[in-house]
Amino acid sequence: NQAEKAVHQKKEQSKTKCRKARRRHINLVAEFNRRQRKNIWLETHIWHAKRFHMVKKWGYCLGNSPTEKCYRACYRAMTKHCLLQDLSYYCCLELTGKENELLKQLARICSIDTGLTFEEACCLSGRFEGSVSLYRADRYPEDMLGTVTFIWKPRDGSENRQLWLWVHPALKQDILRELKAIFQCSEPEAVYIPEPVAASIQEENQVDVAVSLGKKRKKEDKDGEKAVPVKKIIGDGTREPFQSYSWISQATGIVISDRSMEILRYRLIGPLSHSVLTETLKAASLQTV
Predict the structure, then answer these.
(1) Is 24 part of any domain?
(2) Where is the Pop1 N-terminal domain (predicted)?
(3) In DSSP terms, which residues pair with 98 in a beta bridge?
(4) N or C: which end of the chain has fewer CB within 10 A?
């Protein structure tokens, strides 16, 4: 019995891949996607995971506190250089439609008594970002929803405008529900459900060649079939993978789109922030057709 048990354990251990095989790109992508099924990673997750204590909040995996004593370095960067923060976990809601109709309905969920509103001239032009406190429709000063930041897309000559609302993930569902109510937006009849993107043909050929040489096995699922690694996670921490992400109003033509995890957001703090941006980003030349 002991001899049979030893042989059985030896066979099970032989199926475990070595670290070199686990660290191959095709295996890493599949492993990272598997670990993101419950909590979505930001674009900077790998960098933060090596240096921060990670916490799982609001459907995301976020860096909470550094593992090293870097508070002095962060303070020095904020006061003399530049410090970058990843705020991509904030949800972006896009409103598209006629400017007059947007302002008319948005005035119902905010008040000039609390400060700036969506109609402020400096913000309406698209030059500056604004902050506003939202309430339930026609319920001010009761039933506050929360504070959001917003920015208008600059005018391009047409009467249609685009407005981006940056909402904390804990407030997203309540604010989205209120926006759909005041604009009378309903879900589209046909919802596009994208299929997981399979591995490229070149990668599949490489896997087949490696298997034939006996150097690499393709990952198998519980049924023993070959599992194709997923390249992209669909959805985000505040939306189910196959939930609709766009709503339209048949009466006014206003469209509400959920752009969470599609538009990244970074915050730069420090006197050299502008210099870092000018050195990093290069302005594109304008081409007229």
Answers:
(1) yes
(2) 4-97
(3) 160
(4) C
- Tokens representing 278? 């000018």
- Residue 191 amino acid letter: V
Are residues 100 and 55 part of one domain? no
d(CA 84, CA 82): 7
Instruction: Tell me if 278 is assigned to some domain.
Output: no
Helix H or strand E segment including 166:
strand 160-167
Residues 268, 66, 89, 178, CA torsion sign: negative
pLDDT tens by residue, 120-142: 888 888 888 999 999 998 888 88
The answer to whether 42 and 228 have CB atoms below 8 angstroms apart is no
What is the spatial distance between Cα 36 and Cα 150, in angstroms, rounded to a whole number?
A: 29
State the alpha helices, DSSP H only, in 50-127: 71-80, 99-106, 121-124
CB–CB of 270/83 below 8 Å?
yes
Contact indicator for 65, 53 with CB cutoff of 8 Å: yes
Count structural domains, the chain.
Answer: 2
pLDDT digits (tens, 9 = 90+) for 137-166: 888 888 899 999 999 998 887 888 899 999
d(CA 234, CA 37): 10
Judge whether residue 46 has pLDDT over 50: yes
